Amino acid sequence: DGTGWFRPQQRYKTGSTPFSVAAADFNNDDLPDVIVSNPGENNIMVLLGTTNKNFDRKTTLTTGQGSRPRSLVVADLNNDGQMDIGSANSGTDCISIFFGSGSMTFTNQSIYSTGADSSPYSIAAGDFDRNNQSDMVVANYKSDTIGIFLGYNNGSFTNQTTYSTGSSSSPYFVTVGLFNNDSILDIVVANYGNNKLGVFVGHGDGTFEDMIPLPMEYGSHPFSVVTGDFNNDKKVDFAVGNNGTDSLTILLRTC
């Protein structure tokens, strides 16, 4: 409410087993809209933000039978100035892309494989090769890899290039940021299976160094990570949610 407090919650029906949520302006009215992934119904629901601070007019995007979309990313993926949606589909080993029109309608999905028995759990976007075109990265839970999809300016993407996250690592969540003071995007992944964070330092040409492991507490099972400057020293730090120990870990960068 502008004072550090929140109004009572408002609940909106989504679909079965809502798992991930993101916000963006999909119809160019300067109001945030919301998308929700529904793994139980194999779809993504789009809710239109209104001037009375409610959400209305649901649009449903189908990701395919058995797809189980878990994670969502919002970005302009084809350089047309409109917000698009990417989805990591854990049940069908692929990502889906829905291109937005700017009027709350979307194209049919474009599908890119993440490899047999990969089960992508998380997806993020960034410009990894510095060509002013959005690229994507996924965390492949079952194949112990991250996968990089480099974007072309026509809205299509390369086939996946993978980097290992380590044996039995079960990468659960991935995000991007600037982690080593060089203005080139890097990647951090939360590895649920081996209790580690993994940092992939970017070269700026769409390729990355091998993973730098950051060990966490035994049995912590990290499953989410966000970045920010938590101690105001102009360095990017990590906050990690730990499913196994019911805890939050803050990692402050020192150099």
TrEMBL record:
Entry-linked InterPro entries: FG-GAP, Integrin_alpha_N
Coiled coil residues, start to end: none
Keyword Signal: yes
Gene3D superfamilies hit by this protein: 2.30.30.100, Integrin alpha, N-terminal
UniProt KW keywords: Signal
Tree of life domain: Eukaryota
Keyword Signal: yes
PANTHER family: ATP_GTP-BINDING PROTEIN (PTHR46580:SF4), SENSOR KINASE-RELATED (PTHR46580)
Protein name: VCBS repeat-containing protein
Organism: Adineta ricciae (Rotifer)
